[in-house]
Amino acid sequence: MRLTAAVLSCALCVTGAVGGAWASRPQDPDYAAMLDSASDIYAVTDEEGEPTRYYVASGASKTVQRLPKSATRLPWSIDITYSLNGPNVSASTVANASGLVGVHVTVRPAHASGNTARQTIPMVAFTVPSQVADDISADSNVSVSTQGTNTLIAAAGQAGTTLEFSCYMNAKHFTMSSIALAVLPGNDTGNGTNASSDAAQLTDTAFTLVDSLTDAGSSEHQQLIDQLKALRANEQQLAQSVTAERTVAHKQTFQNYMAAYVGSYTTHLSGSIGTSTQLPALVGTAGELSGDTPLAQAVLDLANAVNNVSAAHMHDGAVDALDEVIRRIQQQGTTGLVDDLTKEAAEEATKGSKQYAAGQKQLSAAMIPYSMKYTDVYTAKLSALIGGSSANASAYAQQAISETNNSDELKDSQSKVDAAMAALATACEHTGKSQALKQILLRFSNQFEVSGTNTTAAHDSTISDARLLTQGLADPQSSSFYGKTKAAEAKRKAAIARKKAQAAQQQQSQDSNASLVDDTMSMSASDVMSYANGLTSALGGGKSDSSAGSGSEESENSAGANATNDAAAKTATGKDEADEAPILFGFSQNGTGTLLTHDFSTLIAETVEIGDAGQLIAQAATQLGSAAVLQQSSTQTPAYLLVIPTV
């Protein structure tokens, strides 16, 4: 190896000496000339507010060139801080938090900007989903309005003057969009012009940035988009009908379980009942949670009902997945989508699995006190009906159950159970999104671009790619166990992927409206009962391996854990290797080519973000209206559009 390196070094030196290709380092491009002719400049910043690169549009044709971050300096700097219930906190702390959230934005002229800051004004815009917070208060210089399912927050400053504002909201699982900062030409003299025209020019180019990297706008994608829209309409209908049907069924099954629970409890009452739970009777009830008993069957029924109503929300996740895929195809075509969606599907599966497990614990923690409170209220109602004696208690049990179900005393306990059920529903939305993304890639694999080809071709060529991989290894490795194993593994994965794609495409051709998700969950009684020991342990009684009074509650949790299986993830990390096509790197020995390909995903992601930010600024300019009046600049000053990541 050292000899080879030395020979190569000598060769390069000789080439340089004779004036060959390596004679000298090429001169740096003239960035100043590019910037002088620039009309619009775009960038996505890192967490520190520093651009990773610039996209510079010049001339009437809006030719776009990418420049390194060292090419220029921004005329304005932006600082974003957050607060949670008063004190300032980090972005990671406020992400997904609930409480009083504050977002504080400060835009200042940069010290090294010279006259540029005095010839431009800043405009800031971002959105918060309405489901996160629907009541947002802000400083007087800020405009707040509803835009679809989001709340748009926008503000415009003055030339050369710091723009500073705050907004507050009572948030639930806080999140927000990236912040769009537009720097628009203007000065303190001349005729006033509305910001909309300047913003429109800036945003028009922002929307087209991605076109130079992808096949966005290609008419061939319209058929695919129409098919996806039809699937979305079907999933939206299923999300409404299936969820409504199963919600009613779950409510009835929940009441049936509680009736069976206190019905069993009633048969174990003795003596004077009193007005609170009789613990000996409750311990007797725990013994009926195993075996062939009505209570044990009620436990299993409720576990399945919880699973079913939670799984119905997979259709909501499928709608979310289809919305995203449609939007991204419209923005960037299908170039680079396969890898992005495959990765996202795995991430969503992991979220679904983890959040379902957390929801299980939350439901278990909520149901034990609910059951105890229910039994307390039931006992008091029953005692009042029968005069405090357990004699003939069963005859009044149904009336006491009806009065208990209508009691306001259960509201607090019920709200905690409802919150846990909502957490399980959210987890299933992630699971549904994961399933839908995988199905989309499989059903429409012949319409997705992968490095200049389509996924079907990619799967078919993986076997030959495996040969190239083996050929690209050093001679001793190509025939080694390692080389043969890697090639065989590539063939196996390619075969599995090809079969799955063919099966999914056949299903799509037979039933174009078939759901993208499997919204069923099931489990055996033994799986349910193995987890139903929470209340027995809480009471300090019963056998260690027996079921307990909150059996359904904990069984509901175990139901999710066991039933998520394929629905959530194949492994703890949400990664199913069978669904992945291997990425191979190597060189063929006969010089026919290389498997190395340039990855445009980062640039595509950035330009898509810039396009989204351009839309925000366009909405902000319209929303601010006469409040954002610019003065016509007397010099040629480029406009900037920056995207600043947030939570």
Q: If you had to describe this structure to a student in words, what would you say it looks like?
A:
A hairpin with a 2-residue loop joins strand 14 and strand 15. The chain has two domains: 32-213 and 618-644, Sandwich (Immunoglobulin-like), CATH 2.60.40; 219-453 and 511-577, no CATH class. Residues 1-25, 188-195, 450-475, 529-598 and 629-635 have low confidence and may be disordered. The chain has 19 helices and 17 strands. The chain is globular and about 95 Å long. The chain is α+β, with helices and mostly antiparallel strands and 647 residues long. Helices cover 51% and strands 15% of the residues. It starts with a helix and ends with a strand. The strands form four sheets. An eight-stranded mixed β-sheet has the order 3-2-1-17-12-7-10-9. A five-stranded antiparallel β-sheet has the order 5-4-6-11-8.
Helix and strand topology:
Elements lengths: L1 H16 L13 H6 L1 E7 L8 E6 L4 E6 L7 E9 L3 E2 L1 H4 L4 E11 L10 E10 L6 E3 L4 E5 L2 E7 L6 E9 L7 E7 L6 E3 H14 L13 H46 L11 H8 L7 H18 L2 H19 L4 H50 L10 H9 L5 H33 L5 E2 L2 E2 H18 L2 H4 L2 H30 L14 H5 L4 H6 L11 H13 L1 H4 L32 H24 L4 E3 L7 E6 L3
Parallel strand pairs: 1-17
Antiparallel strand pairs: 1-2, 2-3, 4-5, 4-6, 6-11, 7-10, 7-12, 8-11, 9-10, 12-17, 13-16, 14-15
Helix pairs in contact: 4-19, 5-6, 5-7, 5-8, 5-10, 7-11, 7-17, 8-11, 9-10, 9-11, 9-17, 11-14, 12-14
